[in-house]
Each structure stands twice: as structure tokens, then as C-alpha cells.
Amino acid sequence: MKQWLSETWTARAQLFFFANGIKQLVQRPRAIIITAIYWTIVLLLRWWIIKDNDTLEWAARLSNTGNAGLLIVIASAIFIVFVFALGKPKGAGQMMRDSMRAGLVNHAGETPLLMEQRIDENEVFTLVFRNFGIPLSHWNDHKEDIESGLNLNITDICERGKKYMVVTAVSGANILPNFVEWKDALLPTDNFVLGLGETYTGQVRVNLAITPHMLIGGSTGSGKSILLKCLLMQCVKKGAEVYIADFKGGVDFPRVWHEKCTFITERADLIEKLKQLITELHARKTMFSDMDYANIDEYNKQGYNRLRRIIFACDEVAELLDKTGLDKKQKDEISQIEASIATIARLGRAFGIHLILATQRPDANIISGQIKNNIDYRVCGRADDVLSQIILDKTDASDQISKSAQGRFLTNSDILFQGYWFDDSSFEGEKEYGFEYHFLGD
Ligand SMILES: Nc1ncnc2c1ncn2[C@@H]1O[C@H](COP(=O)(O)OP(=O)(O)O)[C@@H](O)[C@H]1O
Ligand SMILES: [Mg+2]
After folding, report:
1. N or C end of the chain, less CB within 10 A?
2. Closest ligand to the CA of 176
3. Contact 406/221 with Cβ under 8 angstroms?
């Protein structure tokens, strides 16, 4: 049955390729010109063969007509091959077989069909597939099968309308570098965009105005602290006010950090600081709604008393939120911290108050759903299945990042990247903003 299904599908698929060939032909002026010249030559030839028919014997005339007919049959066959060549890109047949083998099929056993393959000047491939109702999630699950089938590294899969799936990829020979050093030239100029690292096709960025909070996961030594610091350094360079909760005594943060950021090292202090941030959040909220501004960027556009974005960061958020072994009073304190962080997660975006949190503890109780569900941008470094599942809601980081990788991360939108290596010494130097930012809490 399965065999029969796949055979009829292989046959029916040819019709799609042929139809696609005609579509490609009509869309390409060059192909239209070649077709026109080709058929003109064929018809001229036919005319030349039968041009003397009027004056010939009937037997010669019949043979001439036969030759002319044969010419048309052969010319048509060549033309059909040409249309197929246009409609069925290299690798399309192999891709069908690979999809079948890997189970990338719909309920009727139909595989996607590769309809178009383009490559741009940066050697980035764009593959357009005719899709027969296979959901995007299923495509993502089969990413590695598609990659090995086509010898490509996929950078993105997205839907185009209901019928097409567009896959962006680079050659399988491309490999991600294991080391990319941060330089100030890498700082994105747009407000408020941060660079995380490099993927196959360029810089991975996050725009905090759109995805306001980040959660970084990964086991010890995966590169979380370096990524977190690289992001916080960029925030400082862009003029944000950075608060860092660090109960480990600041060993991870050399002196330069203490000059540029505010450190919180005790629980009581943390409760107080978070309360201040919530007060600031509500003050901004009231002011924006009184003055009819939708968000901090719109407010800042008017040019005076500009507000700074505020970043609350923590390198091991489990330390702030772990309740094990605590008495009732202490548990209440933790609940207050949790509630404040959840409020920022929920409301912070429009008012420019952001969370950048990291964790290595694969413990679902530590980061409540309230906080996690409001953090849209999540990245996970080297991790086991449990940690990857907690951070990304899938085990992909454990599958795709090797156990020896450092600074290699996967985002929850499936982008694999090498984070910038960042050395604290490159944090020296101050950027001029032209005027002072105003902070309502001051
Ligand atoms: N982006 C990176 N590129 C290359 N090596 C890195 C990178 N980030 C971290 N490392 C290496 O991994 C080690 C551990 O990094 P760290 O950020 O302290 O990990 P974590 O905080 O997850 O325990 C670093 O000392 C460094 O040698
Ligand atoms: Mg660390």
C-alpha cells in the first residue's frame, strides 16, 4: 500500500513539476525569448520540408509530410524536457525520496515538492516548496533531514501563503565559527537593538522594543555569563540604566562593571530595588497615558527629559527565587521578588523596563510560568533535555549543540548562533549621548 502510494505520488508529482515549468517559463522573459526562437526555427524547418509539396509526386509528398510530423513530435518532446528542466530544479527528485523516507509527508503520503531554487550574491539559498498541508512545526522537526538531503544548513523556514514553504539556507560546507570576538563596530545602531552573535548568514539581533525580555539557559560552562555580560555592556553603551542582582559576591563582575551598573547583593535590598522599579513603571504608565504616548520611544521622540531604558539582570535567577529550606518569612520575601519580576515581565515593554535573566538550573519550580510565559526571547546553550525543554519548550538545544560547545546557542525561534566572545576590558570607554537622560525615580 505504502509502496503504491509513493509510486502514484511520484507520478502525480510530475504534473506539478510540469505546471511549475510552464509557470516559470511565463515568468522569465529569457525563457520566453528562447521558446519563441526555438519554435520559429522548428516551424521554418517544417515549412522548408513541405514547401515543394505542390509540385511533387504523391509518394514524395507523403514522405515529406511524414518527416514534417516527425519533426514536430521530436521538437515537442525536446520542449517538454525543457519545461521539466525549468519546473523541476536539481535535487527535487532526491528531495522527494528523502522526504518520504524521513516521514515529511501529509496524511495522504504526499511529500513537499521543491519548485524553485535560487542563490544570491552572499551564497544564501532560497528554496521554495509546494507544500501539501504539512504544518510548519512538522517542517521544523524534520529540519535535519532536509539539511542532510540537500547538503545545506537551514537558517529559516517560513510559510508563504497556504501553499508554499520558503526555506532559507547556506551551503552545508559552511560551518559556524567557534569563536567570534566582540568589537564595538558590531553594536547595532538601531534603538534598542542588541547583537547576540553570528549565525551562518550574519548577526543575530534582538530588539528590546519588540521582544522586551530575555531568558538565557545553559549548563555550567556553556557561555551564559559571557553572553549576558555582552548584552548588558551593549545596554550600557546605548544609555540604559542596568541593575544586576548578584548574590555571589560579584566575582563574575570586575570593577569596571561596578562603575557602570548598579549591583544588588542582598535580598532585602533586592526587594526594595524591585519595588522602586515597579513604582517607576507605574509613574511612566501614568505619565504616558496622561500625555497620550504609546511607549517610551514615542515619548522620547519629543526630545526633552528623555527617559532611560532600565534593565534588570541576574546571572543565576534560581538563586533569587529558590525557596527550598527557607522559613515562612523568607518564603514571603521570595514571593514578593517573584511578583515584582512577573509584573515587569508582564508590563515592562511599553515603559522601557526589561529583564535579562540567565539560569543553569533545570528546575521547573524556579521560574514560574508567569515569568517564563512573558519572556518571549529565550536562548539556550549546551544543555540536557530537561533544561532545553524548560527554556525553549523543546529538546532541540540538547540535540543540536555539542557537549563540548562553548558560546553556542539556539533561540526559541530556531536560530543557531555563536555568541560573541566578550572580554571585560572592551567595556572601557564611555559613549556620548549629547544630553542627559532623565529618570523619574531620581
Ligand atoms: N562566546 C564564546 N566564544 C568562545 N568561548 C566562550 C564563549 N563564551 C564562553 N566561552 C568559554 O566558556 C567558558 C565558560 O563561559 P561562561 O560564560 O562562564 O559559562 P557559564 O556562565 O554558562 O558557566 C569561558 O571561560 C570561555 O572559555
Ligand atoms: Mg556563569
Report:
1. N
2. 1
3. yes
